Amino acid sequence: MCHQTVSLVARHLEANGIPTVVFAAARDIVEHVGVPRLVHNDFPLGNPCGEPYNVEQQREILEYGFKLLERAFVPRTTIQTPFRWSKGDAWKDLILTPEQPFQSEESEKAWLERKEKYRKLKAEGRV
Amino acid sequence: MSSYVRYIDRTRDYYLSKGYDKSYQWAHFEEVPFTPLKKPLAESRVVLITTSDIGIKGVELNNDETMSVSMGGHYSMPADTPIEDFYSASHGFDRHATTLEDVGAFFPIGRLREAVESGRIGSLTARFHNVCTAYSQRRTREQDAPAVLERCREDGAEVAVLTPV
Question: Containing domain of residue B87, as a range?
């Protein structure tokens, strides 16, 4: 969901004269919304700018974004970085599957409470 | 090398399996805007914008009731905040595969400061911005994005780097 929100903001800035680059892991969501420039890292959700504490990799990934800003000449330009998750690709088969709940019980409970609150505020016309 | 994860399909199937019968309608546009760089990056001022629910330890940034319930909202942070003071309390990441302990993995403030020092980019804006995730695409498009644009203009931002979590 935060990929959709960030993409909508990028589109708005770009339409108003500010060039943008989005760094993201969930490539399909960002491309579905449609943004001018995307640097896609094929990493688990949470690390669109590189693996934790891998400063050199994070630096290289940012540089891909700078090059994209300099070289893209049409919107919807995506760069796929060459990096692979250091612990292998097993996470791809497990993310968002019944075998591996995305949220902890605690955070899912909080999420459901938030949804309920949203419904209530919406019914009251406050959102 | 296995292909990248299709999150739209995966989330739909996941929530269907959990008994939710209504699929989320993701935003989709045929037209995509495009603005070329106006001047070299080395002379440009860069703003960092994120949807990672970034926070500053000990500072109350989230003072809007609606922010905490996925209804959008936005707030700004001083760009010169020490890196170690930033953190993210987001739950929207793959907790089985990774962590958010290193903000550099989703909020590249350290790398951007290096880029200023090396002269790769001109400067950073005085403020960075967090936009809160919203179910309502309209909320983001009509309220939060315009508000962030205004702040970017006030700060003289010429290029924007955007990161989700």
Answer: 31-163
Contact A6/B164 with Cβ under 8 angstroms? yes
The answer to whether residues A90 and B145 touch, using CB atoms and an 8 Å cutoff, is no
**CA neighbor of B116 nearest in space, from B152, B145, B80:** B80
Distance from CA of B79 to the nearest CA of A (A): 18
pTM score > 0.80 for this model?
yes
Residue B155 belongs to a domain = yes
Q: Would you tell me which residues 7-46 of chain A have a C-beta closer than 8 angstroms to some C-beta of chain B?
A: 7-29, 32-36, 40, 42-46
Return the ∠ at Cα A70 (arms to A66 and A72), rounded to 5°.
110
Instruction: Please indicate whether, in this complex, the C-beta atoms of B149 and A12 are within 8 angstroms of each other.
Output: yes
One-letter identity of residue A82: P
Contact B145 A121 (CB under 8 A): no
| Contact state of A4 with B27 under an 8 Å Cβ cutoff | yes
Domain presence at residue B3:
no
Instruction: Give tens-digit pLDDT for B16-69.
Output: 888 887 788 999 999 999 999 999 999 999 999 999 999 999 888 765 555 555
How many angstroms away from the CA of A85 is the closest CA of chain B?
10
In a domain, B23, yes or no: no
Tell me the domain boundaries of chain A: 3-87, 97-127
A17: phi then psi, degrees, rounded to nearest 5:
95, 10
Amino acid at B121: I
Residue B18 lies in a domain: no
Indicate the number of domains in chain B: 1
Q: Answer whether B136's CB lies under 8 Å from B24's CB.
A: no
Complex ipTM, two decimals? 0.94
